[in-house]
Amino acid sequence: MQHSALLLLAILLSACTPSHDWRQVRGTDAPYTVVLPAKPATLTRQIDLDGTPVSMTMTAAEVNAVTYAVGSLELADAAKANLALTAMKTALIKNINGTVLHEKVTVNPTGTTIDVEASGTPKGGQPRLLVARFASKNQRAYQAIVTGPEKAVSRENIDTFMTSFKLE
């Protein structure tokens, strides 16, 4: 009897173990904080942003085939950072052969924020959902994204990630 009670308790506890182990992360090259659902990896690489070569640093974690990531880059001035938001948005939506479902633009004294939700099917892939925030502050541009199979992306996890993303 005692053995079966312990086994039942172990099963119940394992069923309650969350797949997301949220942890606060600070940008390594840019002033931001965010919570990610697992231990992140960080990579910096050169990208072509509408004909301008720039270094973008991505910090990302993946859980259950859903990717949570923040990318940041620095440009010559604030005007170029604002223009970069549209280029980053276009590239990500194109990557999933996506269609914009919702978009909201907010302009404030230090920069611009574009919130986007898109759905699409990458070439040879399965339908994906992309929820992204593109933000600029001074000469920096950022992208905070959640993307994965439509059925695997949780609204609660999107909210946790997006509300935690703060520019410093």
Structure, explained:
The chain has one domain (19-167): Mog1/PsbP, alpha/beta/alpha sandwich (Protein Transport Mog1p, Chain A, 3-Layer(aba) Sandwich), CATH 3.40.1000. It is α+β, with helices and mostly antiparallel strands. Mean pLDDT is 88; it is low at 1-17. The protein has a seven-stranded antiparallel beta sheet, with helices on both faces. It has helices at 2-16, 78-95, 155-164; strands at residues 23-26, 32-36, 41-49, 52-63, 66-74, 98-108, 111-120, 128-137, 140-149, 166-167.
Shape: globular
Give the CATH H-level superfamily.
Mog1/PsbP, alpha/beta/alpha sandwich
- Broad CATH class: Alpha Beta
- H-E order: HEEEEEHEEEEHE
Structural category: alpha+beta
Q: How many domains make up the coordinates?
A: 1
Side by side, the strands of the main sheet go: 3-4-5-9-8-7-6
Q: What fraction of the residues are assigned to beta strands by DSSP?
A: over 45%
